[in-house]
Amino acid sequence: MIRKFKKEDTTKVMTLWTKGNFDAHYFIEKDHWLENFNRVKNEYLFEAETYIYCTSTNEIKAFISIDKNQEITSIFVRKDSIRQGIGSKLMHYCQNKNNYLKLKVYEKNINAILFFVAMGFKNKAINLQEKTGEKIYTMEWKNNERKK
Fold first, then answer.
1. pLDDT computed for residue 145 by the predictor
2. In what order do the strands lie in the sheet with 100-106?
3. Mean pLDDT score, 46-72
4. How many distinct structural domains can be found in the chain?
5. Which residues of 121-142 are buried (b: 16+ CB within 10 A; e: fewer)?
6. What is the rounded distance in angstroms from the CA atom of residue 124 to the CA atom of residue 97?
7. How far apart are CA 78 and CA 23, in angstroms?
8. What is the Cα–Cα distance from 62 to 53, expressed in whole angstroms?
9. How far apart are CA 80 and CA 116, in angstroms?
10. DSSP per residue over the chain, as a string?
């Protein structure tokens, strides 16, 4: 089931965020994510539109966050729940609520890039992130392109 994020979800979501970043972004120092932890926990989660995918027993399996600029700032699926269609369900849920979405993804995060392409996103730019020295793709999805 997909539902809106609640304050009481914060600890579980941040655990998922931390583990997800460590796993997906193995090529970036863990300190990078730890430096951003409190800002994400105390600001971004509450400023963004965040949706949770959970079981009937309220076990959180995944979440997605979209900021006010329609940018997906986070999408993470619990490691033991990957490849079960949960990420696709969250993405489709958000695509049905929006006509346009964008995101940034590291070039080395191949699995995420393949997922986003499968969801209809197209690469629009490649830039170098100064802080990490890594290339980042800026990808966009438009509702009218999905229907073609």
1. 56
2. 2-4, 49-54, 60-66, 71-77, 100-106, 134-142, 122-129
3. 94
4. 1
5. beeeeeeeeeeeebebbebbbb
6. 22
7. 10
8. 5
9. 20
10. -EEE--GGGHHHHHHHHHHHHHHHTTTS-HHHHHHHHHHIIIIIHHHSEEEEEE-TT--EEEEEEE-TTSEEEEEEE-GGGTTSSHHHHHHHHHHHH-SEEEEEEETT-HHHHHHHHHTT-EEEEEEEETTTTEEEEEEEEEHHHHT-
- CB of 92 closer than 8 Å to CB of 51: no
Structural domain boundaries, residue 106: 2-146
**Beta-bridge partners for 68:** none
Q: What is the mean pLDDT of the chain?
A: 93
* Predicted TM-score (pTM) of this structure: 0.91
Q: Report which of 116, 132, 127, 138 is spatially closest to residue 27, judged by C-alpha positions.
A: 132
Amino acid at the residue 90: L
The CATH number of whichever domain residue 52 belongs to comes to: 3.40.630.30
User: Is 50 exceeded by the pLDDT of residue 147?
Assistant: no
CB atoms within 10 A of CB 57: 5
